[in-house]
What we know:
Two copies of one chain form a homodimer.
Chain A: E1 9-11, H1 13-19, H2 25-37, E2 41-42, E3 47-51, E4 56-65, E5 70-78, E6 90-98, E7 104-108, H3 113-130, E8 137-141, H4 145-157, E9 162-166, H5 170-182, E10 187-189, H6 193-199, E11 202-205, E12 224-227, H7 240-245, E13 248-251, H8 262-268, E14 278-279, H9 280-285, E15 298-301, H10 306-320
Parallel strand pairs in A: 1-7, 8-9, 8-11, 9-10, 11-12, 12-15, 13-14, 13-15
Antiparallel strand pairs in A: 2-4, 3-4, 4-5, 5-6, 6-7
Helix pairs in contact in A: 2-3, 2-10, 3-4, 3-10
Amino acid sequence: xxxxxxxxxxxxxxxxQSLLPKIDVFETISKxxxxxxxxxxxxxxxxxxxxxxxxxxxxxxxxxxxxxPYYVIKVASGFYNxxxxxLPSSQGLNLLFDKTNGQLVAILLDEGHLTDVRTAVxxxxxxxxxxxxxxxxxxxxGAGTQALLQWKYHRRILDFSEVLLWNRHPEKAQQLAExxxxxxxxxxxxxxxxxxxxxxxxxVTTTPSSxxxxxKNWIQPGxxxxxxxxxxxxxxxLDPQLVASAELVVVDSRxxxxxxxxxxxxxxxxxxxxRSPLELGxxxxxxxxxxxxxxxxTIADLxxxxxxxxxxxxxxxxxxx
Amino acid sequence: xxxxxxxxxxxxxxxxQSLLPKIDVFETISKxxxxxxxxxxxxxxxxxxxxxxxxxxxxxxxxxxxxxPYYVIKVASGFYNxxxxxLPSSQGLNLLFDKTNGQLVAILLDEGHLTDVRTAVxxxxxxxxxxxxxxxxxxxxGAGTQALLQWKYHRRILDFSEVLLWNRHPEKAQQLAExxxxxxxxxxxxxxxxxxxxxxxxxVTTTPSSxxxxxKNWIQPGxxxxxxxxxxxxxxxLDPQLVASAELVVVDSRxxxxxxxxxxxxxxxxxxxxRSPLELGxxxxxxxxxxxxxxxxTIADLxxxxxxxxxxxxxxxxxxx
Lengths: 321, 321
């Protein structure tokens, strides 16, 4: 029989939440995207597992940065009936392993929270990099955990005067609006998504939709859209014509967005055959590749990359060990 | 902030080792293969992560049986330089999740041991199902953890009089022979692999080789070979001509062995285009599909299926909760 090794550190959600304020998440995640786009990361295709009764989906993201000491495996699931039984829809954990010998060093029992945070941070970073110079109204589509977190992280690094909210179920948008108002935000719920689209200079989409929500002819010149919902091949929030009409499309991962994300939908529709999107890490490393003026329509298409999971898990672990 | 949920149960390697004797691993794993071959399991393609300095590989296997309460994610790695720094080459863990809501219920910190055991059990089950009626000499190729475990699990369910061992490094085969002798086995180390191949009615191959070891013209009629080493596309232990010449080839997973395993090598060599292997679960459910007489050459090609990880993890968890 082989001998048991020392147990890895287990880090609870409480501890993770207490450590997050000590981390510059924007800097941490930005560094990860830059390393990824420089080819310094090894990130295989995302693993997916689907469930029917009740409906659920699991994403397994994994990989490493060649110069970093760890490899990560991140499990994040969405079981969308969970709220009806009093559980959050997001679940999951992050595992950090020593990449020189395979030993498990840390189990981050984040229950999906680190995935939620790193997704919101990536959204805010993308918006900061690509938004027009003046954003009066931020529009958020969806009213779930991501809608709230995108607002929280956007307001930490971007200026805007008001938030417009739209959700398929208006009462949920009202609830979110109330939460935002309690935290000092000027907030309006709009009945028709078109109104939000026409009024906002910056729009963040956060739904699991599999049909387009935002139409091309609603969007004003100069708008930036950060789309974070389409993390599987069947999902989409933007009209593919809208994607094709953007002057600049920035994706988190060119390889992932050939298969999933808004870009993949435009590709499948044959609308962007001759184009190639830029990567977020390229824009972050070289800001002059980004928006050129306040008339351009820009889109950030985020599918979630394991390098984000690695960077945030590593930062938590290094703050505790 | 969301509320932290109760922590999942962590099960140490010590506890796992103390629970294993209480489980009928042969029955448990057999049931898993039968369910898998009946189409009752959802098992996506295996995830792989490779490392160069030092060399290492990680396999991520995941899935569920539709009628079972859990889904599993299994991480198993091989870092082959580990023994030189005093660590076992195998590392890893098994995670069990509630498949109705995604909650993590158990972390089995098995450090690769459950993968080693379920692999050995699958080998022994395959050999029991397909070996000729009389096995005088069992041949084992390789001298690592799997070589020892295959012997241990084979002798629990099969009769044989002696064990012949061969390894690329003869001194390691001698060490293994000494270990087996201390446990009462009659054991010989052979210098030339051909001698083992000609003398054994049952041969188990356990190496990470990426070139063929066993040649077609060494193998006697009536031999059964259980090949467990080729778990990645570049690996192989059998001459593809040997695979093509077998009267019966049984694989653990037809879908996985199109891409990896001995069958995939014979496929790529264009030698088995018009044939389809049987699955182990089919043979276990319907034994008359197996060996027809003592003259047939039979091969079991095992790549490792997540249903094995699910069944053994679930059995451990149900013995502890």
